[in-house]
Here is the input.
Amino acid sequence: MSIIKHGTHVVFLNSKTGEQKCVRLPRNSDVYIKPLSFQADSLIGQRFGQKYQVVKHKLVKIDETSPPLTEPVEHCGKTNEFIKDDGATQILSQNDIEEMKSKGITGDEIVKNLVENSTSFNVKTEFSKAKWLKKKINKHQPNIIVKKPSIRLFASSSVSKLRPDVLAKIINNANIWSGSKAIVVECKDDLLTSAVSQRVGLNGTVLQVFEQRLPHNMYCKWLDFSQEHMKALKYYPLKFLGKLNPNAEQEDLNKNGSSNCDDESIDQKHELGKRKREGKTVNFEDYKTVFEFLKTEKFDSLVISAFYDPFPVLELLWNSLRSSGNLVIRTEYLSVVLQCANFVNEKGCSELSVVDQWFREIQVLPGRTHPDMRMQTGGGFILSCTKICDGIYEHGSDMPIVSEPKEIPSVQVAEPME
Here is the structure.
């Protein structure tokens, strides 16, 4: 679906500030993206990916066939050392610019008037002219780009906890395919759950183990998943995950760094990820069906991406992973990864690997190629392996084939004759 309709979610990208905002397209209401506000009713029936300009509180489509004001220019050896940039070189004042904006003059016209009324523009070098025009266009002509919500777009935003390369590495190592069954353990948001659910489709099952009192489904709503797709998603609270192993001791189940508060009831003996939050308490009876499903079924993939210690979660969910299933753990601490690696190595695994996903952005421009000064290099440590079990198994079965012992015929030894 490439046509914008009422009720669908769209992502507005401000080219001036780089801010992204995903909203459900309203009727007869304003959309605010700092520092702009506009009516979005004119987007109905338009295609995604087009650029707009805010003129008199309305969106006006930008004609991309017209030549741009700025063109890439190679760096030259000239300098602007004799130009005095004291503000007196511009004839137009700030009041004149605000008056032009109130009359509905577009940003292109404002920038052209600034060029015509600048006494130092023609003296600048070609490189300085292009840089000056780019600065003025971003200030007086901010564009609004309307994009279709996608996993890659959300992962590229500044609020995402997972970079696109890290997310792709997790999905690839987890071996997620259409129709598979996967367990996803994550906190803060549901970006990883949405990516796995989008790959699994309608015929598979995704079980999300959430940390807070309510499930994470923000990105699933933004992606406009259908009702049939949402039915394939199951949710189970992390605090009741210890019920899979009721014989475990209390101190082993409270290794989670976020569970530092007192017990509220006797039923919370096996809780993980407990936090001091006010509101409706989580009732185990609401998730009893999902608990039976988690206890009886075997899953193809287990993905854990959290800020707390994932080792207690791995111990409880290891038996829920079928033989030859894939395990992926993403964390920021190497000591935790080594503890999990020793555990799966003792239990039985193959293709065990621990990778530090390192990433660096580089600006590539003529004469200005250098690494980005503000970048997030480390993406965390990623552990991946394939679960194996001893014995001989039939295809699609988790029970080993036990051959019946053969009866060994007794051998009678003849007694020696006297």
Observations:
- The radius of gyration is 30 Å.
